[in-house]
């Protein structure tokens, strides 16, 4: 095998591997937990992404709704996961998932905010118990200070 054909089979581990996802429908999960669905149109050397016809999917329990976002630019450092959506399976709803009509979105948003607040309280309690009972240090204080 010549060296050029070997290099052609080496998997990319940089933003260059995103080329295969161009013009495909993708799901992106951000660091803050938001989930975006849209058509992946472009990216740059920092893995900043451009989504066309993007929607933000909000889910609470087995109910979900989509908030239209249009053209969306995502800073690369905020991306946790990017995956292609299988268009054949997308039209088959999950039996447990209940898509809500746009009119029900305000109620879903209120439930989502309450769910997020409950998660924050649980996280704060968990962190406090880890500090008090297990000797963990608070977030951001684990530097090199002696």
Automatic annotation (TrEMBL):
Keywords: Cytoplasm, mRNA processing, mRNA splicing, Phosphoprotein, Ribonucleoprotein, RNA-binding. It comes from the Eukaryota. Residues 13-88 form the Sm domain. GO terms for biological process: deadenylation-dependent decapping of nuclear-transcribed mRNA; mRNA processing; RNA splicing. One of its GO terms (molecular function) is mRNA binding. GO terms for cellular component: Lsm1-7-Pat1 complex; P-body; ribonucleoprotein complex. It is found in: Cytoplasm; Cytoplasm, P-body. InterPro entries: Lsm1 (IPR034104), LSM_dom_sf (IPR010920), PTHR15588 (IPR044642), Sm (IPR047575), Sm_dom_euk/arc (IPR001163). Interacts with SLBP; interaction with SLBP occurs when histone mRNA is being rapidly degraded during the S phase. LSm subunits form a heteromer with a donut shape. Component of the heptameric LSM1-LSM7 complex that forms a seven-membered ring structure with a donut shape. PANTHER family: LSM1, U6 SNRNA-ASSOCIATED SM-LIKE PROTEIN LSM1. Plays a role in the degradation of histone mRNAs, the only eukaryotic mRNAs that are not polyadenylated. Probably also part of an LSm subunits-containing complex involved in the general process of mRNA degradation. Component of the cytoplasmic LSM1-LSM7 complex which is involved in mRNA degradation. Belongs to the snRNP Sm proteins family. This is U6 snRNA-associated Sm-like protein LSm1. The lineage of its organism: Eukaryota, Fungi, Dikarya, Basidiomycota, Ustilaginomycotina. The gene is LSM1.
């Amino acid at each position: 095998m010549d060296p050029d054909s070997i290099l052609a089979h080496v998997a990319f581990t940089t933003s260059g591997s995103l080329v295969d996802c161009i013009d495909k429908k993708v799901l992106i999960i951000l660091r803050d937990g938001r989930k975006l669905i849209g058509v992946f149109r472009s990216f740059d050397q920092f893995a900043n992404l451009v989504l066309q016809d993007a929607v933000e999917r909000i889910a609470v329990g087995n109910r979900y709704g989509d908030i239209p976002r249009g053209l969306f630019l995502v800073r690369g450092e905020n991306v946790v996961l990017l995956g292609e959506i299988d268009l054949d399976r997308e039209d088959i709803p999950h039996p447990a998932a209940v898509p809500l009509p746009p009119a029900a979105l305000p109620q879903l948003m209120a439930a989502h905010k309450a769910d997020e607040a409950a998660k924050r309280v649980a996280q704060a309690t968990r962190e406090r118990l880890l500090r008090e009972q297990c000797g963990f240090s608070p977030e951001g204080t684990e530097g090199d200070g002696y």
